[in-house]
Amino acid sequence: MFDLTRLEAIVAERAASPDPDSYTAKLARRGVGKVAQKVGEEAVETVIAALSEDDKALTGEAADLLYHLLVLLHLRGVPLADVMAELQSRTARTGLAEKAARTHEG
Ligand SMILES: N=c1c2ncn([C@@H]3O[C@H](COP(=O)(O)OP(=O)(O)OP(=O)(O)O)[C@@H](O)[C@H]3O)c2ncn1[C@@H]1O[C@H](COP(=O)(O)O)[C@@H](O)[C@H]1O
Question: Complex ipTM, two decimals?
Answer without folding.
Answer: 0.93
